[in-house]
Amino acid sequence: MEPRGDVVEYFGFLAFVLVLCYVDLPGKVKKLKREIKSIKRNDGYTRKEVFGMSKMLEGLKGRNCIIWFEESPISIGNKVKCYVEDVDEEWIKILVTNKKGEKETKLVRVDWVSEVEIGEK
Length: 121
Known about the structure:
By secondary structure, this protein is an alpha+beta fold. It has helices at residues 2-22, 25-43, 47-58, and strands at 64-69, 79-87, 91-97, 103-109, 113-118.
């Protein structure tokens, strides 16, 4: 009978240790959520800001403009002279002329845009 009692004590102790490990888990999850929210707020990246920017950019559909980007999209550069074809909540579809004089369609994230200079239609 003694071996069976040792096994039960072992599992009881193991269960006690597991409970102690996971008792503070909800507090840790709440703390991580607060930290993530703080980081997003400090970076200035909130859905409202991106949505507001995309609403403003919708007025540029069908217009030529110069767009400056915070992050340089691949093969475009920081300053781009382009024609805005379409805009949604997260993306801008632009038509650019490459160095060879060929027109290329590019999709660029709205949150990369830092400044826009509006040209004629």
